[in-house]
Structure formats: C-alpha cells, structure tokens
UniProtKB/TrEMBL annotation:
<keyword id="KW-0963">Cytoplasm</keyword>
<protein>
    <recommendedName>
        <fullName>Centrosomal protein POC5</fullName>
    </recommendedName>
</protein>
<feature type="coiled-coil region">
    <location>
        <begin position="31"/>
        <end position="65"/>
    </location>
</feature>
<keyword id="KW-0175">Coiled coil</keyword>
<dbReference type="GO" id="GO:0032391">
    <property type="term" value="C:photoreceptor connecting cilium"/>
</dbReference>
<comment type="function">
    <text>Essential for the assembly of the distal half of centrioles, required for centriole elongation. Acts as a negative regulator of centriole elongation.</text>
</comment>
<dbReference type="GO" id="GO:0042462">
    <property type="term" value="P:eye photoreceptor cell development"/>
</dbReference>
<feature type="coiled-coil region">
    <location>
        <begin position="158"/>
        <end position="192"/>
    </location>
</feature>
<keyword id="KW-0131">Cell cycle</keyword>
<dbReference type="GO" id="GO:0005814">
    <property type="term" value="C:centriole"/>
</dbReference>
<comment type="similarity">
    <text>Belongs to the POC5 family.</text>
</comment>
<keyword id="KW-0206">Cytoskeleton</keyword>
<keyword id="KW-0677">Repeat</keyword>
<dbReference type="InterPro" id="IPR033351">
    <property type="entry name" value="POC5"/>
</dbReference>
C-alpha cells in the first residue's frame, strides 16, 4: 500500500510538473505572440506616420504652389489635366468599344448556341418521327409477313389434312373391300362345307341303305 501511495504521489507530482511546464510554455508563447503583434503594430504605426509626413510635405508643396500661383505650374497642371482628360476619354471610348465588342461576341455566341440547340431539337424531332414511322412500317411489314406465314401454314395444314383424309378414306375403302372379300370367302367356304357335309351325309345314307339291303 505504501508503494502504491508513493507511485500515486510521484505520478501526481509528474503531472503537476508537466502542467506547470505546459502553462509556462503557453505563457511564453503568448508573450512571444504579443511581442510580435506589438512589433507589427509599431511598424504599421511608423509606416502610417511616414505616409502622413509625406502627405504633409506634399500638402505643403501644394500650398506653396497655390500660394505662388505660378503660371508655369498652372499651365503644366492644366496640360496634365487635359492629357489626363484625353486619356480618360480614350479609355472611356476604348471601354465602350470593348463592351460593345464583347456584347457582339456574346450575342453571336448566343445566336450560334440557339441555332445549334434548334438544329438538335429539330433533328431529334425528325429522328423521332422517322423512327415512329419506321416502327409503324416495320410493325405493318411484320404483321403482313406473319399473316402471310399464317396463311401459308394454314394452307399447308389444310393440304396435309386433306391428303391425310384422302389417304385414310382410301385405306378405309380398301379395308371395306377386304372385309367384303373375306365375307364372300367365308360364305363360299361355308357353302362348300355345307355341300361337303351333305355329300358325306348322303354317302353315309347310301352306304347304310346298301348295308340294310344286303342284309
């Protein structure tokens, strides 16, 4: 138990030390960031101050120029303004021309796309109509072919059945003739047997009579 307590205390101490180190590192990192931000802010402030000084000098120069009302300066400024105005006018004209050119290209592209879409739609409609007509014709052709085939099959079956019926009829007639012949042969045989029997009876009768007469 004492060992476990010591281990727990050691573990707790290590954790607290680690947390303390982590806190110190975090504080140092935060201070470093604050120092960097302060330096950056100071640099920006210095840059703004320099810009303000430059603007002050420019303003002072402008005030001196205005106060002197130097004709050369005014002329130069006027020429510069005219050139700037001409440049602005040229830029405006160029911009207008560029906009019109872009609009023309866009309209041309839109017309071309619409024409392509219309052609594709028309081709799809024509293809659908042709396919529907082809399917109808194909169905009619198949129906006619099936009908003709069915008619041919019916005619063939009728011919086969008629031939079979004729064959069976002929067989039946032959069978009837054979039966009639057999009946005639039986009648002849019976008649022959009767005559033979009668002859035998007559012969016996004659022999008996001769025997009685001899006695």
């Amino acid at each position: 138990t004492h060992c476990i307590t010591v281990i727990l205390l050691t573990f707790q101490t290590n954790i607290l030390t680690e947390l303390k180190n982590w806190k110190l590192n975090l504080i140092q990192h935060h201070k470093l960031q604050m120092r960097q931000e302060n330096e950056k802010h100071a640099a920006q402030v210095k840059q703004l101050q320099n810009e303000m000084e430059n603007l002050k000098e420019l303003l002072h120069t402008y005030e001196i120029s205005v106060s002197r009302k130097d004709e050369v300066v005014i002329t130069n400024l006027t020429k510069a303004l005219e050139k700037q105005k001409e440049r602005v006018e040229l830029m405006r004209k160029f911009t207008l021309w560029r906009i019109q050119h872009v609009k023309a290209k866009q309209e041309e592209y839109a017309i071309r796309i619409a024409d392509t879409h219309f052609r594709r739609a028309l081709m799809r409609k024509v293809w659908a109509a042709w396919r529907s007509l082809s399917e109808v014709r194909w169905k009619d052709k198949v129906a006619r072919a099936c009908q003709l085939r069915a008619e041919d099959v019916c005619v063939q079956l009728t011919s086969d059945y008629e031939a079979k019926i004729a064959e069976l009829t002929a067989t039946l007639e032959q069978t009837k003739a054979e039966i009639l012949r057999l009946h005639n042969e039986r009648d002849q045989y019976e008649d022959t047997m009767k005559k033979a029997f009668m002859r035998g009876v007559c012969a016996l009768n004659l022999e008996a009579m001769s025997m009685f007469q001899s006695k």
